[in-house]
Design brief:
mainly alpha; two-stranded antiparallel sheet; 10 helices; about 5% strand; two-stranded antiparallel ribbon; yeast vps74-n-term truncation variant fold; about 220 residues
């Protein structure tokens, strides 16, 4: 099975141009949020609860099977090496080289190709146009059933919707649909009762962390 973050990156790349449909501030952070959410769905890393030795809301690496996927395993090691992190701090740490690593994986899978170029002949740029859209179409079909047809999503699909909702990208996937309705449905799913307590806490923490992480650099830049 592919990672949530791989599916998310495919969805957030324009099929024709190969360019991301969200800005460079939010993209790496929502991808890192996807990694964190995948670990929560597997009960590998979740926020601490009241009564634990770790401060409530800080991330805890749970006892259990280590993820087999090397990207997830490294994420667990990174989180486990630090003192208990807030989700937003973990997201900042996880962003390093994450987009490029995920891009390499979806290139290796044959779904997109990498095209390097330069803007104005100076600034390097990379695009990932679609090569084989079969996997992404399957993911979009699941999302469409949930967002357009009202079908109850699986926890994995709901997690993907929650990440898309965090960066307001769900309507961009279905441009022919009512943007407001898609946005509302995505928000309802993101806030819905589809996950256990620990995962619910992780979804809320990841979404809040993405918003904070994306907002703070903009504030700093604007005040400079």
């Amino acid at each position: 099975m592919t990672l949530l973050a791989e599916d998310l990156l495919l969805l957030l790349l324009d099929d024709a141009s190969g360019k991301p449909v969200v800005d460079r501030t939010r993209l790496p952070r929502v991808l890192a949020g996807a990694v964190l959410l995948e670990l929560a769905l597997g009960d590998v890393v979740t926020p601490a609860e009241p009564g634990e030795d770790v401060k409530k809301g800080r991330l805890v690496v749970r006892d259990g099977a280590r993820p087999q996927d090397p990207l997830l395993a490294r994420a667990v090691d990174l989180i486990g090496r630090s003192k208990p992190l807030k989700p937003e701090a973990a997201i900042e740490k996880l962003t390093k080289n994450l987009r490029d690593e995920l891009a390499k994986r979806i290139v290796d899978a044959g779904w997109v190709r990498e095209e390097k170029g330069k803007v104005l002949g100076i600034f390097p740029t990379t695009r990932w146009p679609e090569v084989d859209g079969s996997h992404e179409r399957a993911v979009r079909n699941e999302l469409g059933a949930a967002l357009l047809d009202g079908v109850t999503p699986t926890p994995r699909t709901a997690a993907l919707v929650s990440l898309l909702s965090a960066v307001d990208a769900a309507p961009k996937l279905f441009p022919d649909a009512d943007r407001r309705a898609v946005k509302k449905r995505a928000k309802d799913i993101a806030e819905g009762d589809w996950a256990g307590k620990a995962v619910r806490a992780s979804v809320d923490a990841v979404n809040a962390a993405i918003i904070v992480a994306a907002t703070v650099p903009a504030i700093v830049a604007g005040s400079g």
